[in-house]
Amino acid sequence: MFELPVAYRWIDSVQGERWRMLEVSPPVTLELDRPFLPVPGRHRALAVRVTVRANQAGASGAVKLAAPAGYRIDPASAAFTIEREGQEQSVSFTVTPGTASGTLTATASVNGASWSLATQTIDYPHIPVQTLFPPAEMRLVRTDLKAPSARVGYLAGSGDRARPRRIRQMGMSVTLLGDDDVESGDLSRFDVIVTGVRAYNTRPRLRSLQPRLLDWAAKGGTLVVQYVTTADGVVDYLGPFPSESLATASPSRKRR
Fold it and tell me: Can you tell me the distance from the alpha carbon of 63 to that of 140, in angstroms, rounded to the nearest whole number?
């Protein structure tokens, strides 16, 4: 007797031959909108979104969240109805924090059964496609965070979708800025301007607009520049003063 895995083989027009194993999926999977949630010291209500994905047609039921003792969740449950397989529906909750860290777990009730699984797909050209079903949960990280109510302008860089949201979670107001905003907009309305990771690499105009950002900083604003890469030596246009690399710095500076 031979035992062989049940697999599906197909030819991709770009990647060539591909394989994936037979997947036995729950009727729905749940995706919380972030892997962890920083819980500030004050008891400020926090918004949490759960996306329900149907793995079968006509999936309906309700989603509930479970949190550590002392947390309050509103509403107690949220109904969903999804007509077609593969479609999604989002439901929202308001979570008022308690005093402890822990885990926020999402559970869906479908046809009398409860499911609390997310979906994680591993898809690389050199290996078969694999689908995992980890628990549908979010870490609650209780922290004594004292952040000012700052007005933040954010110049997004490479893969920056999550960072502005993280700043908002700390209680700050965040406005996404375009290059035209830097060139002619009113920057005085911001307390802080943040340039995202590799923003100067992905937004070529920023280099010529840097003098206006530095002028705004000289008048009292705070400019935070995140990671930048360069292929032409030292980046000497980001700060108000010239910079030099460790390779060209004096021996005394290297020791420091």
Answer: 19
111 burial type by CB count under 10 A (0-12 exposed, 13-18 middle, 19+ buried): exposed
Asked whether this chain's domains 7-142 and 151-255 adopt the same fold, the reply is no
**CATH class of the domain whose range is 7-142:** mainly beta
How far is 197 from 199, CA to CA, in rounded Å?
5
Which residues lie closer than 8 Å to 59 by C-beta, 6 or more apart? 27, 28, 52, 80, 81, 82, 110
Spell out, as residue ranges, where the chain has pLDDT lower than 50: 246-247, 249-256
Q: How far is CA 192 from CA 62, 93, 167, 195, 210, in A?
A: 42, 30, 11, 10, 15
Euclidean distance between CA atoms 149 and 195, whole angstroms: 19
Q: What is the pLDDT of residue 255?
A: 37
Element (H or E) spanning 28, and its range? Answer: strand 28-32
Q: How far apart are CA 21 and CA 75, in angstroms?
A: 39
The rounded distance, in Å, linking the Cα atoms of 34 and 48 is 9
Q: Where are the domains of the chain?
A: 7-142, 151-255
Q: How many Å is the Cα radius of gyration of the chain?
A: 24
- Give the chain's length: 256
Per residue in 26-59, pLDDT (tens digit) is: 999 999 988 888 877 666 788 899 999 999 999 9
Query: How many Cβ atoms from other residues are within 10 Å of residue 150's Cβ?
Result: 15
